[in-house]
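pipeline stage [seq->struct] | target=Class I SAM-dependent methyltransferase | organism=Sphaerochaeta halotolerans | residues=250
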Amino acid sequence: MRNTTSALPVYKNWVSLKLVIVPGVLALGTAVLTAFYSWLMIFPAIFLLMVLYFVYARYLFSPKGKNIQAELHSMLIEEIEWDGKGKALDIGCGNGALAIRLAKKYPEASVAGIEYRGFSEALCKQNAEIEGVSERVSFKKGSIISLPFEDDEFDLVVSNLTFHEVNDLRDRRELMEEAFRVLKGGGVFVFQDLFLAKKMFGNLDPMLNKLSGWGAKSVEFINLSESERIPNILMTPFMVGTIGIIKGNV
Ligand SMILES: C[S@@+](CC[C@H](N)C(=O)[O-])C[C@H]1O[C@@H](n2cnc3c(N)ncnc32)[C@H](O)[C@@H]1O
């Protein structure tokens, strides 16, 4: 049932405050040091520029700015080709924003979200209640490395900007094989991530071939690195400049 209070959902900004605070502290520290070593002068300027960049990036991603987080969710959702009947999973769901949007778009579906770092079931549930979909959305703590679900449980699996965050695997492309494990035959997948970052995912063609080897019947890559829906200033290699979508079915 829709909550009648004026409360708004709380979705964490993807640009963490750490990215502002750390260069801020370094700017101050190196500024103090320039009193003794004037040749250090360039460093406070560089760190200050970093602070300004990340403050602006936070603003652009937030609803008070250009709401780019919601825009990226829209870009993923628009690529889903699914009848909305059955169960969906969002891997690395954060505070539930994308899982909740799926539940709103597909009124006949039930949606699960799993999150590992900083998981707050209470906050996810509160957001789902505010958005009026709490009866069809559930949240669980779990890692994408070993999903806490049986084989063939879901009709749709999505993931947004989560794979690139996982560093404790030799080959992070194998995370997609784990996602396929929980998809039913004929099930649909749509993953949005920094797939053009070769250091993270290797070359595109071998990665897409691997997905076919792991059971994908169709695989398509959509290059979003020149999308006009994302401001140019965010299209840097350390933001979302290497973003793309891999979609298909198993
Ligand atoms: C950039 S955020 C995106 C959050 C969410 N997918 C969204 O679109 O709003 C990346 C998310 O991946 C999560 N994450 C990182 N490592 C994970 C893991 N091993 N298993 C599940 N989630 C993970 C992070 O905690 C974070 O919430």
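stage status: PASS
auto-comment: Residues 42-61 form the longest helix (20 residues). The pocket of S-adenosylmethionine is lined by residues 14, 92-94, 97-98, 115-118, 143-145, 160-162, 165-166 (CB under 6 Å).
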